[in-house]
Design brief:
- The protein is mainly alpha-helical and 154 residues long.
- It contains six helices and two strands; from the N terminus they run ββαααααα.
- It has a two-stranded antiparallel sheet.
- The longest helix has 28 residues, at 34-61.
- The termini are far apart.
């Protein structure tokens, strides 16, 4: 949650916070590609996060409880990575430059092992993933809770 006392504004929910910060600081939100970026942020909020979050539950935290749930979740994960790979086959980022779309999607892909995904099967996601994983702010954000963890390197 963000409380902006200057504007008497409270913002919660990660997608809304990303949009708020991008607008406030005029960063990572190309105005000419606004809707292109926003649709990918919404795609992350509506599909990537919820489905890959389920993959965490069924494939990583509670494996072996339901073959049906695990198989369905693996199918969703593969579908998501296929959609991301197709988009990234056309350009370097989800929009023409690094944006809040990339910022919202990348942390989910950083847990590819939990999704039982081999990033080498998705070469465009792999390229994009590696490119983002070496950004100093991404490394700092990945380790924002104090302990240092290596970002997975496929």
């Amino acid at each position: 949650m963000i409380v902006d006392n200057d504007n008497n504004q409270t913002v919660f929910e990660s997608g809304a916070i990303l949009l708020y910060l991008a607008k406030k600081y005029d960063k990572f939100l190309n105005k000419d590609k606004y809707w292109e970026i926003i649709q990918w942020v919404f795609f992350q909020m509506a599909y990537v996060g919820p489905m890959l979050g389920q993959a965490h539950q069924y494939l990583f935290y509670h494996p072996g409880k339901s073959k049906f749930a695990e198989d369905k979740t693996k199918g969703y994960a593969k579908h998501i990575y296929s959609i991301l790979d197709k988009r990234l086959s056309k350009q370097e980022y989800f929009s023409d430059t690094y944006s809040i779309a990339d910022i919202s999607i990348w942390p989910w892909t950083a847990r590819y092992e939990r999704h039982q995904i081999n990033l080498h099967d998705y070469p465009n996601v792999l390229r994009w993933y590696k490119q983002i994983s070496i950004r100093p702010a991404v490394i700092k954000g990945y380790n924002s809770l104090g302990e240092f963890y290596e970002i997975p390197n496929p």
